[in-house]
Amino acid sequence: MQDPQQLYTVEGDLPELDRPVLVYGLAGFIDAGRATRRAQGELLDELEHRVLVRFDADQLIDYRSWRPQIGFDRDHYMEYQTPTIELSAVWDTDGTPFLLLSGREPDVQWERFVAAVEQLVRRFDVGLSVEMHAVPMSVPHTRPVSFTSHGNRADLVAAVRSWKHSVVIPASVGALLEYRLGAAGHDTFGLAAHVPHYLAEGEYPLAAAALLETLGGTCGLSLPSESLRELADGARTQIDEQVVQSDELGTMVGLLEQQYDAWVRAEARQTLLGVDGDVDDMTDEAVDDLARDLPTADELAREFEQFLAERDKSGED
Fold it and tell me: Which residue in 10, 17, 29, 180 is deepest, having the highest Cβ count within 10 Å?
């Protein structure tokens, strides 16, 4: 392997940080509802930040498989959107600093890139590395956002009640980074927000807001989500109108609600993240029947593969 340090440059003097949290979610793999992109955009738009490290995108990105955009104005080109991969220091609303790794997922040299990030984790004495991402799931938009949590910090994973499945899916740099950091003895944690599969290819700001709120709650950071909640309220109104106008969609959402509520009851008959609605009037037989209808690991894998295939056809990031 070539020297990982040759993949990045440090921008100016580095600030003094006390075992900061590292948050990352690189674009290019699964980002259902564009939730990760929205969440990171909210952090950079609303919070003070400064770029500390820039990675050399020319060494990491295959421009022919993913072409950057450039504007054309009548007779000349303008505003080339240069791909970036950056590590920034960000200060939350209480002034607590953390690190944010953002930008495009590398197409090549994954191991070298991961080794470079691990160097930076040691250099900044990172206390916890956290991945946030969003995946399509058979859940209804009428219930609170649920999660799949993962990592080697058992206390944090246990703090977020989530659906647990064993499934083989296509790898990502984010997954490899968590795997390698954990093997090297670093603390890792991850949150995958569940986005209703029928909304996965559009904007779903509710998942972005839930990512920031859950991330902040588990990692001790104060992160902004108010504007995302406002967007989510508007989006919910539009989605509900579409459901009312479509008998087929309404039936599907109703079945997903029953499955979701059955799972909640099966999980010690407790509410999941403040879900509203009483399912205690359901019989045990009905709960068992609905629980059996929850997606299997193979079905989840097929959903991932279908989502990726459809995204590739449409040219989505």
Answer: 29
Q: Which CATH class, in words, describes the domain spanning 4-225+303-314?
A: alpha beta
Rounded to whole angstroms, what are the CA distances from 225 to 66, 188, 229?
30, 23, 6
| Residue listed under structure tokens 């609605």 | 277
pLDDT for 48-89, tens place per residue? 999 999 999 999 999 998 899 999 999 999 999 999 999 999
Determine the Cα angle at 37 with ends 118 and 99, to 5°.
Answer: 35
Q: What is the pLDDT of residues 123-153, one digit of tens each?
A: 999 999 999 999 999 999 999 999 999 999 9
Residues whose CB is less than 8 angstroms from the CB of residue 266 and which lie 6 or more positions away in sequence, other chains included: 287, 291
* Cβ–Cβ under 8 Å, residues 133 and 304: no
| Delimiting residues of CATH 3.40.50.10900 domain(s) in the chain | 4-225+303-314
Contact 32, 304 (CB under 8 A): no
Residue 14 is given by DSSP the state: P
DSSP letter at 107 equals S
What pLDDT digit, counting tens, does each position of 266-285 carry? Answer: 764 544 344 444 444 445 55
Collect the ranges in the chain with pLDDT lower than 50: 268, 270-282, 287-288, 290-293, 297
Minimal CA–CA distance to 242: which of 276, 198, 280?
Answer: 198
- Could you give the angle at which helices 284-292 and 247-266 cross, rounded to 10 degrees? 110
Residue 208 CA to residue 275 CA, distance in Å, equals 18
- Beta bridge partners, 46, equal none
Q: What size, in residues, is the chain?
A: 317
Element (DSSP H or E) covering residue 50:
strand 48-55
Report percent pLDDT > 70 for the chain: 82
Q: How many helices (H) and strands (E) does the chain have?
A: 10, 10
